[in-house]
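Much of what follows relies on a compact textual record of a protein's fold. Each token is a code from a learned vocabulary of local backbone shapes. The record below shows the convention in full.
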Amino acid sequence: MPKISKAAAPPARPGKSAKTENDAAHGVQGKKGKAAKAAKPAKVQKKNKLATGSPKLPEAAQVLGSDVVYQGPLFRVTRDRIIEPSSKESVREIIRHNGSAVILAVDNSKSRKDPWIVIERQFRHAANQFLWELPAGTLDPGEDPLTGAQRELEEETGYRAKKWKPLVKYFASPGFLGEAMNVFVAEGLVAGHARPEEDEDIDFRLVKLSELLKMIRKGAILDGKTMSCVLLYNELMKKK
């Protein structure tokens, strides 16, 4: 491997010795007592904070027209012609949904570090298999998300909770689905009688948080809301 030689020092400018130039570069005083100006250090560019939106663009699209192409009991599909915030005109087909409530029901009466979590097992035709999930349900039109969460937990599991607090709100698939997922943590569980709807066949049980995390790592949990909510809850628990 060839040796890499050090770069040769630049030749001195006419009328000045190499020592004089070297002294000036390092701020050494000359005969008249004046120090040579040192080069200003390069400015370090500060990292910008994560942008939440561009102030130059509108925050919403301008809807030029909207046609309902499907109307069902749970959602409708619209074909919207819009001008996006970037001023680009486009056509989007969107599933319009009232939104859902998701409940992370926690029994921490015996252990706060490794509480029991209520999960359900039910058949999902869209996935063509049984899935383990957190209790959840569709909100009624105009329904308050917390009210919907309390209703869904009692209907599907029989449990009521003494303490409720929001965990997160997110959109599961915002490219075409307008469903907002409103997630709540329910604590202080009180058992009761479940009242599932006629088309619901739900098997529920309590699983320790540590076991639920193992199920996620092993791929036994395939439901997105369950994975994201349990992992977020676990991270927040670590900070307490």
